[in-house]
Structure formats: C-alpha cells, structure tokens
C-alpha cells in the first residue's frame, strides 16, 4: 500500500467508526441536526478521498448515503428506522472495504457495492416503507452506483477532478469554512472548479493549514523500538546509581573529590531525564478505551434484534486511558463476553416480566483507573449463575474433585476451564463458559486478571484488571531461597512479621490479621524452591485474601518487564533486571489473585 492510500485508509477508518456512533445516537434522537450534519460531512469526506484513490464501490456507497443525509437534514425525507438501518449498512460496507485495504487487499480486488445495499439506500431516499408521504428529492435522479469519476468530476472536457472535494479531503478539518447551501451538487461547474483551483494557490490558506496539524502518525514498530531504548536507558541509569552509591563509601581526596561530586550530579540528572523520556514515550502509547467501546453499541443493537430481546448498552469511563496494545487485544474478549451476556445471560422479555423485571434489559460496560491498574467491568441484570450447578458439572466432567471450588467465587471461575462446552453449560446454568478460557488467556497475556461475581436471578459481573502500562510495573521485591522475585504492587496490602508457629485449620497454617484468620502459603514451596525459614508475610489483596510467606523484602521498584516467550512457567509472567543488575522473576497478577494455585493455573 502506498503512503497516500495508507494515510487515506487510516483517516477514513476513524471517520467510519465515528459514523456508526453518530447513527446510533441519531436513532435515539432523530431531530439532532448536529448529528445529521456530522454524518453527512463524514460520508462526503470519505467519498472525496475514495474518489481520488479511484475506489469506485466506496464512492458509490458514500454518494448514495450522502444523498440520503442531504435529504434528511433538509427535511425532504423523514428520519425513519429504515433510513438509519440503510445508513448503518452503508457504514459497515465502507468499513469492510477500508479494513480490507488496511489488511493488504489491492484496490482492484475490492468487492463491488451489493445490489441489496443500493436498493436499501434508494428506498430510504424515496421514503419507501416510511410512515410519511414521500417528498420529492431534488437532484437525486439515478439509483445506479456512481463511478469514482462521476462522483467527483465535473462533466467538462477541460477538467477531470472535483478540486473542491479533493482539496477539502486533504485539508485538516476546521481549516476551511463549511460549504454554504442546503445541498451539495453532484458535479461542479467550471467556474466553481476555477475558484477552488485558485484557492490552492492562495498564500493565506497555505500558511494557515499547517497550524491545524496537532498530531502526526508514527509506525507502531518504531514507537515500540523507542520504548525499548527508553527502558534500557532507565535500567542503565539505575545500575549507574547503584555503582555510584558503592563508590561513595570510599574517601576521595584532592582532585578526585570535585570529580566525584560532578559525576554524582551528572548521573542524577541523567537518571531523571531517562525516566522522563521513558514516561513520555509510554504516554504516546496510551489511548482512551472509548476507541474500543464505541464499536460495541451497534454489535449489541444488531444481536439483540436478532435474538428478539430489548437491551440497552450503558457505557461509562470511555475517557480512561490504557496501553494501545491492550486496547487492540481486548476487542475479541469483550465481544465474546457481550455475546454471552445477550445470548445466555439476558432473559426474553416474557421471562423478565414473569420475574417482575423490566422488559428492557441492561448491559453495562464501565472503565476506571484504580491505582496503577485499569478496571473494565461488563455486567448484566439477567439470570445470574448457579454456583452449585457449576460445581456439579465440573465434577461430572472430571475437571475438579469434590474438595475443590468450595466457595461461590471459586465455582464461578470454573467457567474459564476448557471443557465447559456450550451445550452443557447453556442447558443448566444460564449459558456462561462458551470459550471463556480464551477470554482469560487474552487478559493474562497482558499481565491482567479477570474475576466473576454473580447472583442467581439478579445478574452477572465480569471484572477485568489490567496494568495501565505494559512495560513498567510497580513491584515489591522479595527473596525466597536466595532467588529474587517481584510481586505486582496492585495485590500487595501490607507486610507482616510471621511467628515461628501457626494455628492450623484443616491442616492449613493460619495467621490472624486485623482480627481475621488468613491462610499462610509459602511462595518458595509453591514455585518449587527449597523450603527455607520464611519469617516475612505479604498480605495479598484477592477475593479470598491470604498471606504469602517469603524470606525477606528488599523494597519496591518500578521494573521494566520482559515477557517470557520461549517457555511457560506457572506463576511467572516475565523477567526484569534490578538496579543491581540481578535477574528478577515477576510473579503473575492473576496467579496471585487466584491464590497461587499451580494446579488451577495449569488446567486453565
């Protein structure tokens, strides 16, 4: 893909995504003229660029949709569900074409506009199926797809380009005044073309246009390389600081003393700047989750319609920022969770009325920041999950024994085990478990964790916890059997001193912390190290809190994490280097939240 086409695809994809959001908003508020105008401008802009790139099918779809919204915003055609549906189909077709281009499909291999889409748009323009009489629509005479040259070119032998459409397509938004008049002509007159051509030579416009360029696009590979270098520079600065601290133990006389002082000041400044460089680089990868959330209203709307259910999707916290890699990787898991909520969690309208619920169900999608983590919650007010039936199903399939998953929280986590097939779960416990192991794997790949809370008859909530920044993790450094390990601070509550002897409950050592008995688990023993004298305990914040025993605590540090790529070790999510240059193993967040249960980790 050449650079010009690539730039068009990126910009047009953003416009296409916003169009869907505007259309769903317009469905709720048909009289919103600002939204009507915004949709018209989006299709007009995409059409101009597509015409310049000779993308005929895209131009045809945009041209008819542009005509539809020109008629809608001038009141010649009413805003009906049929019109919204036709526009959504057109938006989907344009998005599919852009996605295909983005994935490397040559422009000449793109599909043509479906006849059904053309018919839908034409019927909407002519108000077929509407509740009000059909109003005349000036300037819309043909229903056949319009070629790229027809849509952007004036019918004159002297010129073959609609210079105004092209100029507006490549000029930053907001630079030029809005086009006057209620309608946009399909072709420009010779005089209009000459006027726009002359504007291209206008010095004022040339000088003012660049001022609007407030951002640039950088290849993700280059950005990742920059982040890698920034992380290594911080690591080197930290190691230099440790060496400097060791040097300061020696006495420097004469000319060495001012040199040592200058070296200390220089290294301190270098360390500060390298840290700021890393933070600034990380900030460039942060994106609001709203970029991800805005794709779901249409998905929920269409699936609810197919299932014959009435559902509202409520979104909040869309401004919460998270690493771009996380945003991109969460789409499929969230789609899966929303589909399960709609298909299996939400009852039919009749069932809800029988249970004294509102016939219109609600699904909530929330995001917020909590310490160094981003929390994403998907909840519904549907059937809920039956913990006892989950246990029975897991035992009958041989996935657990009768002593496992004693609490409801542990039983809900069983849906993440491979083997809970669609039919078996859906027929007995409201349908969760369809490929949910894939969802958990996707979350844990980015050092996250997922939990389930549910109340039978009231609904179900999935809560995902993810680090805000993937490369840097605030940790507590501990030791066991001489090995250096790092625990994510997101799970650490406090450090306690352990006695030589513990109380025992069911053969499990227990220590009272703030009046509550908590089980004590040896980190070294769980990870396979030689048992040693562990006299320090870390209280772990988990759905079922417990104390993790270690030999010692070496302090806290923000570590640059390197993921494990060649091997998979239960409980270990990656490696890092301490300020002293020592190799540190980073414990998985989900492993800690799940209670450091190696068997569960291996199974799930």
Summarize the structure.
By secondary structure, the protein is α+β, with helices and mostly antiparallel strands.
Query: How much of the polypeptide forms β-strand, as a percent range?
Result: 15-25%
* Strands in their spatial order, largest beta sheet: 16-8-9-19-18-17
CATH topology of the largest domain: Heat Shock Protein 90
Overall structural domain count: 4
What is the top-level CATH class of the largest domain?
Alpha Beta
Q: Specify Rg, calculated over alpha carbons.
A: 30 Å
- Catalogue the unreliable spans: 129-160, 180-193, 195-213, 421-434, 599-604
Helical residue percent?
Answer: 40-55%
* Mean of all residue-level pLDDT scores: 78
Number of DSSP helical runs: 23
Shape: flat
Give the structural class.
alpha+beta
Largest sheet: 6 strands, mixed
- Annotated CATH architecture of the largest domain: 2-Layer Sandwich
Structure summary, number of beta strands: 19
Distance between the termini: 41 Å
What's the name of the CATH homologous superfamily of the largest domain?
Histidine kinase-like ATPase, C-terminal domain
GO molecular function, one term: phosphorelay sensor kinase activity
Function: Involved in the transmission of sensory signals from the chemoreceptors to the flagellar motors. CheA is autophosphorylated; it can transfer its phosphate group to either CheB or CheY.
EC number: 2.7.13.3
Pfam family, one: Hpt
């Amino acid at each position: 893909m050449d650079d010009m086409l690539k730039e068009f695809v990126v910009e047009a994809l953003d416009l296409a995504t916003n169009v869907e959001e505007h259309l769903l908003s317009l469905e709720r508020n048909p009289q919103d003229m600002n939204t009507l105008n915004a949709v018209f401008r989006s299709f007009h802009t995409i059409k101009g660029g597509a015409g310049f790139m000779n993308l005929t099918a895209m131009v045809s779809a945009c041209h008819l949709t542009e005509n539809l919204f020109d008629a809608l915003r001038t009141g010649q055609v009413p805003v009906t569900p049929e019109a919204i549906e036709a526009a959504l189909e057109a938006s989907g077709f344009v998005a599919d074409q852009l996605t295909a281009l983005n994935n490397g499909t040559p422009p000449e291999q793109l599909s043509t506009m479906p006849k059904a889409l053309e018919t839908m748009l034409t019927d909407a323009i002519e108000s077929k199926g509407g509740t009000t009489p059909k109003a005349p629509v000036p300037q819309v005479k043909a229903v056949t797809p319009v070629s790229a040259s027809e849509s952007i070119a004036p019918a004159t032998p002297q010129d073959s380009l609609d210079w105004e459409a092209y100029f507006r397509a490549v000029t930053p938004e907001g630079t030029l005044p809005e086009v006057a008049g209620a309608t946009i002509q399909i072709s420009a007159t010779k005089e209009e073309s000459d006027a726009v051509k002359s504007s291209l030579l206008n010095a004022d416009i040339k000088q003012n246009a660049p001022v609007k360029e407030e951002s640039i696009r950088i290849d993700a590979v280059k950005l990742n390389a920059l982040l890698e270098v920034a992380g290594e520079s911080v690591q080197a600065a930290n190691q230099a600081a440790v060496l400097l601290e060791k040097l300061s133990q020696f006495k420097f006389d004469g000319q060495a003393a001012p040199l040592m002082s200058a070296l200390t000041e220089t290294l301190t400044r270098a360390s500060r700047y390298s840290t700021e460089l890393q933070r600034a680089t990380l900030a460039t990868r942060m994106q609001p989750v709203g970029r991800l959330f805005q794709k779901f209203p249409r998905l929920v709307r269409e699936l609810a319609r197919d299932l014959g259910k009435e559902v509202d999707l409520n979104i909040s916290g869309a401004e919460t920022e998270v690493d771009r890699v996380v945003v991109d990787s969460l789409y499929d898991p969230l789609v899966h969770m929303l589909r399960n909520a709609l298909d299996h969690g939400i009852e039919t309208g009749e069932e809800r009325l029988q249970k004294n619920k509102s016939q219109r169900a609600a699904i909530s999608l929330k995001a917020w920041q909590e310490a160094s983590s981003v929390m994403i919650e998907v909840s519904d007010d549907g059937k809920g999950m039956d913990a006892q039936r989950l246990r029975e199903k897991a035992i009958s399939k041989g996935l657990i024994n009768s002593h496992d998953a004693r609490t409801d929280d542990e039983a809900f986590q069983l849906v993440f085990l491979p083997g809970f097939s669609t039919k078996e779960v859906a027929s007995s416990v409201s349908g969760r478990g369809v490929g949910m192991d894939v969802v958990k794997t996707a979350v844990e790949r980015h050092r996250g964790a997922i939990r389930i809370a549910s109340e039978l008859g009231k609904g179900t909530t999935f809560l995902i916890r993810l680090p805000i920044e993937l490369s840097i993790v605030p940790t507590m450094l501990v030791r066991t059997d001489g090995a250096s390990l790092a625990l994510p601070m997101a799970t650490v509550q406090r450090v306690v001193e352990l006695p030589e002897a513990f109380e025992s409950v069911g053969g499990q050592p227990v220590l009272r912390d703030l009046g509550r008995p908590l089980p004590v688990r040896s980190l070294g023993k769980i990870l396979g190290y030689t048992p040693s004298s562990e006299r320090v305990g870390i209280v772990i914040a988990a759905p079922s809190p417990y104390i993790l025993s270690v030999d010692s605590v070496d302090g806290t540090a923000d570590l640059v994490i390197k993921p494990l790529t060649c091997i998979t070790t239960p409980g270990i999510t990656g490696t890092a280097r301490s300020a002293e240059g020592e190799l540190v193993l980073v414990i998985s967040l989900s492993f800690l939240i799940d209670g450091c249960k190696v068997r569960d980790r291996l199974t799930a």
